[in-house]
Amino acid sequence: MSSPSKTRTPRAIQPDPESRFESRLNKILSHATDVFCDKGYEGASMRDLSRASGMSLAGLYHYFGSKERLLYLIQKNTFSTIVDELKERLDGVMDPEQRIHIFIQNHLEYFVTNQSGLKVLAHEDEALKNGFNSEIASIKREYYRICLRLMEDLKRERNLDFNSRTAVMSLFGMINWIYTWYNPRQDGTANDLAQQMSAMVLSGVGCSAVRNGAAAKRRKITAHGASRGLAASHVKPRRGERKLVKFGAATRRTAHSAR
Hints:
It is built from 11 helices and no strands. It has helices spanning 17-39, 46-53, 57-64, 67-90, 96-112, 115-123, 132-158, 164-175, 184-187, 190-233, 239-257. Helix 1 crosses helix 4 (67-90), helix 1 (17-39) packs across helix 6 (115-123) and helix 7 packs across helix 8 (164-175).
C-alpha cells in the first residue's frame, strides 16, 4: 500500500542580495544628500554622514572611503537615472515638440520629489576632484547633447531660426533652480510645471525665430538701400543735374562762411 504523498511547503522566496544592497545603498545616499544639502559639502564630515545614515564611522570608511566618493555616487546615481529614464520615454515618440515636453517633464518629475538632491547637484557642481569628476562630466555632456539634439530637431522640423545652445542653456537655467521657489500648493504638480515650462520654451524659440527673421529682413533691406546709394554716388550727373549740384555746393559754402 502506497504511503500518502506529503504536501510540500513552498520555500520562502529569498530577497536578491543585490537588490538588498541597492536598497541599502540608496538609503545611505539619500541620507548623505540631506547632510550635504544642510551643511554643504565642505561643511559636512564623515561623522555627520555616519550619524545620518546609521552606519558606523568605521563601516562608512570601509565601504566608501571618503565623503567625496559619496558625493560622486550621489551625482552618478542621479544623472544616470535621469538619462536612462529619458531615453526610455523618448523611444518611439517622433513629434519634436512632444519630445522637448518629455525632456522637461522627466527632469521635473525627478527633482520635484528630490529638491535637496537638485540643490546638492547645483551647489556642489565643481566639488569633485581626483578623477571622480571626469565620469560625471561625461554623463552630463550626454544629457546636454540629448537636449541640444531635441532643439536641433525642432528647428529643422518647424523651419525655425534660433540659437540652439542659448535655448538649451536657458532651459537648464529654468528647470535647475526650482528648488529655490517651488511650492506645490502654488505651482502645482510636476506635470503642471512641465506643461507651463514647455509652452514657455516652445513659444520663446518661436518668437526668437520670428525676430531673427525680421532682423535678417531689415538687414537685407538696409544693405540693399546702401548698395543702391553707393551705386548712385558713382553715377555721373546729367547736364541739368550738374547745375543743381553746383548750386547746392555754392549754397553750402555761403552758409559756412556766414557762421
